[in-house]
Design goal:
The complex is a heterodimer of chains A (about 260) and B (about 220). Chain A is an alpha+beta fold. Helices cover about 30% and strands about 20% of the residues of chain A. Chain A contains 5 helices and 9 strands; from the N terminus they run βββββββββααααα. Chain A is elongated, with a radius of gyration of 30 Å. Chain B has helices at about 15-25, 45-50, 75-80, 85-95, 110-120, 130-145, 165-170, 180-190, 195, 200-210; strands spanning about 1-5, 30, 70, 100-105, 120-125, 150-160, 175-180. In chain B, α1 (about 15-25) packs across α8 (about 180-190) and α1 packs across α10 (about 200-210). The termini of chain B are close together. The chains are: A alpha+beta (about 260), B alpha/beta (about 220). At the A-B interface, α1 of A face α3 and α5 of B.
Chain lengths: ~260, ~220
C-alpha cells in the first residue's frame, strides 16, 4: 500500500491486476477540521468502471473518477476497476473544496451526500429493488417458459421427456412446433431482407414502411445477422446429430431375449 | 404537470382512476405498469419500445377519448426496459401535451418508484379494506421520499360509507370517495370516461374533485 499526503489529506492505494483489468482500492482521509469535497481522478488509461447498483453507477462517479465528501477527520474507502494496465500512482486528487454548507443535519453520516445524485430517478433505480422479471420467466427460442405448459424444456437429463415432441416417436420429417415457429419467423425476416437486396425505390419504400421505418430496418439487419449465425450453428448440430442417429442400432431383439 | 396515480397494492383500481382523472384533466395517460399493462394496447410501438430506445414517445400516442401511451404485454419487453429513460420520455410528452398522468404499478420496487420520482405530484388509490390502506401509507412514504407531493387520495369501489376522516388522517391528504359503479369499472375497456358518460354521477364528481386539486 502506498500513501501520499497532500494539504491536510491522506490518500492511500493498492492496485491489483486481474485478467487485463486493474482493480484500484484507495482510502482517503481528511485531516482538516472542516468538511471537504474531494475529487479523485483515475490516472489509468481507460474508462473507470464504477461500483454499480441495479446497473446504475453509484452517486458521485463518472468515467474519470469520483467525488467524495468527507467530514472533519473522516476517512472513506473507494474502489474501482479500469480495463487497462496499472500505473503508479493509479489515482490522484483532482480537486479539494471545502464543503461547509452540507455539514449540518442528516447528511452527516452520508459521505456521498455532497455528491448526492444528479436526479431522484437514478436514486430510485439504485435504491429500490430491480423491476425486471427474472430471466427464467422470459420466453426465448427453445425455452418457452412463459406459456407454462412447456415448463420442462430446461430438463436436460438426456433420457427425460423430449420437450418438443412430448416423447412421441415416429413423427419423422415433421419439425416440432417451436422450431417451425422460429423458422417461419426467420423466413419472414429473410423474405423482407431479400426484397430489400438490390431493390428499386418503390419496393424499398414498401418494405421500410412494413418494418416501421429505418430503425426497423436496422433492427432487421441486426436480427438477420443473428439469424444467420444461429441457423449455421443449428444446421451444424442437426447434421452431426442426424449422422449419429443414423449410425446407431438399438439391439431391441437381443435385449428382449435377455429380459 | 406530471401526475402519478399510485397505490401500493394491486387491483385497487389505479388504472381506472388514472384513466378517468386523465379524462377530467384533458391529459395523456401513460401505462407505466411495465410488467402488467392494463390500459388498452394497440399494434404500434409502446412504452416498452420507448424504454428500450426503439421508439419516440410521441409515436406511441394512441388516439381516443383519452390519449393513451400503451405498454407492451411481454415479460421480455419488461425485462428490456431501461427505467432511466422514463424521465426524458415523460418530459417529452409533457412538453407536447401539457399534462401527463402516469398509471403506476403496484409495489415498491424501482418500477413503482421511478414514475413517482419523475412525477410532480401524486394521487394515491386505496380500496376500503384496511390492508389496502396500509399499502397506500407505505406508498405515500415512497412518494414523499421521491418528492411527488401528495395532492389527494381516492378510496375506490366503496359500498358502505368508509371512515373518510381516519383515512385522510392516516394519509395526510384529502380523500375522495368513488362509489362502486359499473360505469367506472367499464370505463377503460369501453374507452368511455365516467366524466363524459355519466357526468352527474357521484363517481364523476369525485374524479373531478381529485382533478381540481392537481396544480396546473
Amino acid at each position: 500500500m502506498q500513501i501520499r499526503g497532500t494539504a491536510g489529506m491522506d490518500l492511500a492505494w493498492t492496485v491489483e491486476q486481474d485478467g487485463g483489468v486493474s482493480l484500484v482500492r484507495c482510502r482517503v482521509h481528511n485531516d482538516e477540521a472542516v468538511p471537504r469535497r474531494i475529487r479523485l481522478d483515475s490516472r489509468l488509461d481507460g474508462p473507470v468502471l464504477p461500483p454499480r447498483r441495479a446497473g446504475v453507477p453509484e452517486a458521485g462517479w463518472d468515467a474519470g473518477g469520483v467525488v467524495v465528501r468527507l467530514g472533519p477527520g473522516a476517512s472513506r474507502a473507494v474502489g474501482f476497476a479500469v480495463p487497462a494496465e496499472p500505473t503508479e500512482p493509479p489515482v490522484e486528487v483532482g480537486s479539494v473544496t471545502s464543503d461547509r454548507e452540507s455539514v449540518q443535519g442528516s447528511d452527516e453520516g452520508d459521505p456521498f451526500s455532497g455528491a448526492r445524485s444528479e436526479t431522484p430517478v437514478l436514486d430510485a433505480v439504485r435504491t429500490l429493488g430491480d423491476h425486471r422479471p427474472p430471466r427464467d420467466a422470459v420466453a426465448t427460442v427453445g425455452n418457452r417458459r412463459e406459456d407454462g405448459e412447456k415448463g420442462e424444456t430446461e430438463r436436460d437429463d438426456g433420457a427425460g421427456v423430449d420437450p418438443i415432441s412430448d416423447g412421441e416417436a415416429g413423427d419423422g420429417g415433421v419439425a416440432p412446433t417451436v422450431v417451425d415457429e422460429w423458422l417461419d419467423a426467420v423466413a419472414d425476416r429473410v423474405d423482407r431482407a431479400e426484397r430489400l437486396t438490390g431493390a428499386d425505390l418503390g419496393t424499398a419504400t414498401e418494405v421500410v414502411e412494413e418494418a416501421d421505418g429505418l430503425d426497423g430496418v436496422s433492427d432487421l439487419r441486426r436480427r438477420i445477422e443473428t439469424d444467420a449465425e444461429r441457423l449455421r450453428a443449428v444446421s451444424d448440430r442437426t447434421a452431426a446429430l442426424a449422422a449419429r442417429a443414423e449410425s446407431t442400432d438399438v439391439p431391441i431383439e437381443a435385449l428382449e431375449r435377455l429380459a | 404537470m406530471i401526475l402519478a396515480v399510485a397505490g401500493g397494492k394491486g387491483g385497487v383500481g389505479k388504472t381506472t382512476l388514472a384513466y378517468n382523472v386523465a379524462a377530467a384533466l384533458g391529459a395523456v395517460v401513460v401505462d407505466a405498469d411495465l410488467g402488467m399493462a392494463d390500459l388498452p394496447g394497440g399494434r404500434g410501438p409502446d412504452l416498452h419500445d420507448v424504454l428500450a430506445g426503439r421508439a419516440d414517445p410521441i409515436e406511441t400516442l394512441r388516439a381516443g377519448p383519452v390519449e393513451v401511451v400503451p405498454c407492451g404485454r411481454t415479460l421480455a419487453g419488461a425485462r428490456a426496459c431501461d427505467l432511466t429513460r422514463l424521465e426524458s420520455a415523460i418530459g417529452r410528452l409533457e412538453r407536447e401535451r401539457g399534462t401527463v398522468v402516469l398509471d403506476c404499478p403496484a409495489g415498491r420496487r424501482s418500477d413503482a418508484g421511478v414514475p413517482l420520482a419523475v412525477a410532480d405530484a401524486s394521487v394515491l388509490v386505496a380500496s376500503p379494506r384496511a390492508f389496502a390502506l396500509a399499502d397506500a401509507v407505505r406508498t405515500r412514504e415512497l412518494a414523499r421520499e421521491l418528492d411527488a407531493g401528495l395532492v389527494g387520495c381516492v378510496v375506490n369501489r366503496v359500498v358502505e360509507e368508509p371512515p373518510t376522516e381516519t383515512i385522510a388522517d392516516a394519509l395526510g391528504a384529502p380523500v375522495a370517495v368513488v362509489p362502486a359503479d359499473p360505469r367506472v369499472g367499464r370505463s377503460v375497456e369501453d374507452e368511455s370516461p365516467v366524466v363524459d358518460a355519466a357526468p352527474d354521477s357521484d363517481a364523476a364528481v369525485a374524479v373531478r374533485d381529485v382533478a381540481r386539486r392537481v396544480p396546473s
